[in-house]
TrEMBL record:
SUPFAM superfamilies: C-terminal domain of alpha and beta subunits of F1 ATP synthase, P-loop containing nucleoside triphosphate hydrolases. Belongs to the ATPase alpha/beta chains family. PROSITE patterns: ATPASE_ALPHA_BETA (PS00152). The keyword Transport applies. This is V-type ATP synthase beta chain. InterPro entries: ATP-synt_VA_C, ATPase_a/bsu_AS, ATPase_F1/V1/A1_a/bsu_N, ATPase_F1/V1/A1_a/bsu_nucl-bd, P-loop_NTPase, V-ATPase_su_B/beta. NCBIfam families: PRK04196.1. It comes from Acetoanaerobium pronyense.
């Protein structure tokens, strides 16, 4: 370990400091900076080039000059103490308590960069996780151990949706063994207060661990926030045997923090100014979700991204789509119709859904009902386009029934209250009620036995 103290810096730029002559320094190592007057700050090594080192200062470089500070290398990465006592607590992006409670005491400290999961030791995700939201549970079912991002846009109610999922999410039969890790990056003060109040008033706070990084806090803290949250999730899942749902909002803020730090390090930018390693950096986070053989617990990941200008080809949603197993896309058009949650089902999907639904998991008719709803709503879009040309009155009787189905689907099936929790049975029953608007011979994706059982004569 490098125990030398370095008394001179080469330069101070933004939140970065540079020094030379350093020996045995590792990337990601934590440093301690003593500023004149006895003030102590921490930083993280972000670049090592032979004996030259660049480090990011967590609390910012205000008051630091090249001659009034000393630097000591700790020889360790950022580590946080973890125990089951973290449930119900709120921490900042560095893993320090900000709820007025005592520090977390634990025999072990855990490296926030995590331990990569060996692909061979992964278990295939099976059981579904119920969010209480019809559009998600029926049409893009979240499977335990899955990574399923929500693609949103500025001004869309993704914060309300995230809070509702935290309040309502459950795994049948595992209620006491289920908890949520919530990470917020670059959020405004009023958004952070909204989340806290929402969890407190609904009584779920004791099952939630919160890691919050406010927009006016240091950018480097935004990089460590999701890592602290995922480390806590891994600890609760694999050492305490719990089922953990991790919700991270907003990953676009995280990407912008990466871009800012990359720019400060004068790295060559890639697409839209993001660093070339954006894909591998996101993969390091997302791939920490999953289930392991010989371990009881699971980590399920629901990252939320706001797409700049609603552009789904933007690097953040684009790369996230490659790494994760599906996506939930929110629609501005549905939001303008006052439909909440405004889930656009046609570009949304869950690639693992087929293995966690049906008899023994949800209900025997789930797969066929979901397929029929997708198919019928897709037909609605075609009929609406035709109606704009010839008028709704001149549509055929069948096409008019599809128009009516489309309105009912958006209002009664997609639309639900922010405090309305629907079981999977409730959701499928509503699906059948809406499908009954259509003639029986139009339901070509449903087998005759289910039509007889649920549609009636």
């Amino acid at each position: 370990m490098n125990t030398k103290e370095y008394l001179r810096l080469d330069s101070v730029s933004g939140s970065l400091i540079a020094l030379s002559g350093a020996e045995d320094v590792a990337y990601g190592e934590i440093i301690e900076i003593m500023v004149e007057g006895g003030q102590k700050r921490r930083g993280k090594v972000v670049l090592v080039d032979e004996d030259k080192v660049i480090a990011q200062v967590f609390q910012g470089t205000q008051g630091i000059s090249t001659i009034n500070s000393s630097v000591r290398f700790t020889g360790k990465p950022l580590e946080i103490p973890l125990s089951k006592d973290i449930l119900g607590r709120t921490f900042n992006g560095m893993g320090l308590p900000i709820d007025g409670g005592p520090p977390v005491y634990s025999r072990n400290k855990y490296n926030v960069n995590g331990r990569p999961m060996n692909p061979v030791s992964r278990r295939y995700p099976r059981n579904y996780l119920e969010t209480g939201i019809s559009a998600i549970d029926s049409l893009m079912t979240l499977i335990r151990g899955q990574k399923l991002p929500i693609f949103s846009g500025n001004g869309l109610p993704h914060n309300e949706l995230a809070a509702q999922i935290v309040r309502q999410a459950r795994i049948k039969g595992e209620e006491d063994n289920f908890a949520i890790v919530f990470a917020a990056m670059g959020v405004k003060h009023d958004d952070a207060d909204f989340f806290r109040r929402s969890f407190e008033s609904s009584g779920v706070l004791e099952k939630v661990v919160m890691y919050i990084n406010i927009a006016d806090e240091p950018v480097v803290e935004r990089i460590t926030t999701p890592r602290c949250a995922l480390t806590a999730a891994e600890y609760l899942a694999y050492e305490e045997g719990m089922h953990i749902l991790v919700i991270m909002t907003d990953m676009t803020s995280y990407g912008e923090a990466l871009r800012e730090i990359s720019s400060a390090r004068e790295e060559i930018p890639s697409r839209k100014g993001y660093p070339g390693y954006l894909y591998s950096d996101l993969a390091q986070l997302y791939e920490r979700a999953g289930m392991m053989k010989n371990r009881e617990g699971s980590v399920t990941l629901l990252p939320i991204l706001t797409m700049p200008n609603d552009d789904i080809t933007h690097p953040m949603p684009d790369l996230s789509g490659y790494i994760t197993e599906g996506q939930i896309v929110l629609s501005r058009e549905l939001h303008q119709k006052n439909i909440y949650p405004p889930v656009n089902i046609l570009p949304s999907l869950s690639r693992l859904m087929k293995d966690g639904i049906g008899d023994g998991f949800t209900r025997e008719d789930h797969d066929e009902v979901a397929s029929q709803l997708f198919s019928s709503y897709s037909r609605v879009q075609e009929v609406r386009s035709l109606a704009q040309i010839i008028g709704e009155e001149d549509l055929s009787e069948t096409d008019q029934s599809f128009m009516e189905f489309g309105r009912a689907f958006e209002k009664r099936f997609l639309g639900q209250g922010q405090d309305e929790q629907r079981s999977i049975e409730d959701t499928l029953n509503i699906g059948w009620e809406i499908l009954k608007i259509l003639p029986k011979d139009e339901l070509e994706r449903i087998s005759p036995e289910f039509l007889d059982k649920y549609y009636g004569s």
